[in-house]
Amino acid sequence: TPSPTPSPTPSASPSTPSPPPSASTVVTTTGRSSGRSVSQRPGTRAIAVAMACVTTYMVVTGLVYNALLRTVELPQGSEPVWWSNEVLHLVGPLFLLLDLLVGPPRRSIGWGTIGTVVGFPIVWAAYTLIRGPLTTNPVTGQSWWYPYPFLDPHGSGGYVSVAAYVIGIAVVVSLIAWGVVWVDRRRAQGA
What we know:
mainly alpha
C-alpha cells in the first residue's frame, strides 16, 4: 500500500511582528472594555487615594525643596548627576500637578482622604526624630543624623525650630491635600 503523503504545511509569511501595545493603550483599552465606568470597578478607590497621596507628596516635595533646600550644599560634598534634583524636585511635581488638573478624571474620593494623606508624613517625621539621635552620621561621625537640616535639633533654634518646620509642613500638606481632593471631586463629578 502506498504511504500517505503528508499534507503541505502552510508557508510562514515573511511579515514582521507588530510591536507590543503601549502601557497607555493597555490601560485605556482595559478601562473601556470592562463594561463599567472607572468609578464602578473594584479597587479603584484605593488607587485614587494612592494617587492623591502621591500627588500631594510630590507637590509638597517640589515646594519644600525649592523653598528650603535648593541652595543647601549636600553634606557629602558631592553633587548628584546634574539633572536628578531637577527631575525629582521640579519636573515630577509639575507632572503630577498637571495630571491632576488636565489628566483623565479620577474616581471621586471622600474628604476623609485628607487624614490619610497627612498621616504618613507625620508618622515619618516622628520616626525620623526618634531615629536621628540613634544613628551615627556616616560622613561626619557625629552621633546623630537627620536627613534634612530643618529636622536637625542640633541646629539653631533646636527642637522649637524643628517643631515649627514640622507643623508648617503639616499645614502645607493638609492644604495641598485639601486642594487635591477638591479638584479630584470636581473633576469626577464632571466626568
